[in-house]
Amino acid sequence: MSTVGPMLRQWRERRRISQLDLAITAEISTRHLSFVETGRARPSQDMVLRLAEHLDVPLREQNRLLLAAGYAPAFRESALGEPELAVVRDAVRQVLAGHEPYPALVVDRCWNLVDANSGVALLTEGAAPDLLEPPVNVLRLALRPDGVAGRVLNPGEWRAELLGRLRRQVETTADPELAELLAEVRDYPSPPAETGNAHGSGIFVPLRLRHGDTELSFFSTIATFGAPLDVTVSELAIESFYPADAVTGEYLRRLASAGGRIGDGATTTATT
After folding, report:
1. 244-88-166-194 Cα dihedral, nearest 10 degrees
2. Which of 147, 174, 15 is closest to 162 using CA atoms?
3. For the chain, is the Cβ count within 10 Å smaller at the N or the C terminus?
4. Could you tell me which residue ranges the HTH cro/C1-type domain spans (predicted)?
5. Does this model's pTM top 0.85?
């Protein structure tokens, strides 16, 4: 018996969309949608994909819906090192290199480090060696006391920001691996009390980091690939850090000018 109906119903309820609203946006009858969800009607491949699109179901989960309905997956999942994704790798490295001397990194769906520029060495300096052994998980590296968290000057609000981001991902994707990661990292020891201005500019949550005797402040943006048709590509995220104040910008530019590049002078690929 096909299990796609209950799976679609779970996605609809997760998105807090009524049967009527989904039926209207997908241009089908409420009766037919009800029959699909209860297993009384077998949806076509096109219908599965149409409902999944309107429910904003990730590509990985769309493939699972198709398999549950008895169809082949519609989206391939390539290894990042495959020749077909050379254009993706090149684009990522152009973005990373072009962002120097400021830090930028790429993660997969489970926050495992895929690639990074030399500026990231400033963020990871002093972290426990085991946290830097591939595959590097960026959330563990960021939140463990012997990782980046030990140098963060606003650990409470930065931790809350990262956990909130991960929690929203779990709610959006229903990914069991992300749920396990959330359960792990939220049990890490609570950070010490905040020091200085704990709320930054009031526009965004900054990463306030100690580097030697200097306090640096960053904000970040996250970019993804538009209209992906490959599961791997759809799950890549590029996080780019920018100076949140003039002191940080000048400090990083001075370091880069003095040493050519921050870190080891090369863009590093963590996993392929």
Report:
1. -20
2. 147
3. N
4. 8-62
5. yes
pLDDT tens readout for residues 217-260: 999 999 999 999 999 999 999 999 999 999 999 999 999 988 75
Quick check: is 77 in a domain? no
Structural domain includes residue 202: yes
Which position has the token pair 């863009």? 267
The count of domains in the chain is: 2
CA distance 63 to 40: 21
Helix (H) or strand (E) holding 35: helix 30-38
Beta bridge partners of 237: 107
CB under 8 Å, gap of 24 or more: what pairs does 159-167 form?
159/191, 160/205, 161/205, 166/111, 166/139
Residues 103, 268: Cα–Cα separation, whole Å: 12
Residue 213 belongs to domain with CATH number: 3.30.450.180
- Order of strands across the sheet with 207-211? 207-211, 214-223, 237-243, 104-107, 113-116, 268-269
25 part of a folded domain? yes
Count Cα atoms within 13 angstroms, Cβ side, for 254: 7
The residue type found at 188 is Y
- Domain of 155? 83-269
Q: Are strands 237-243 and 104-107 parallel, antiparallel or unpaired?
A: antiparallel
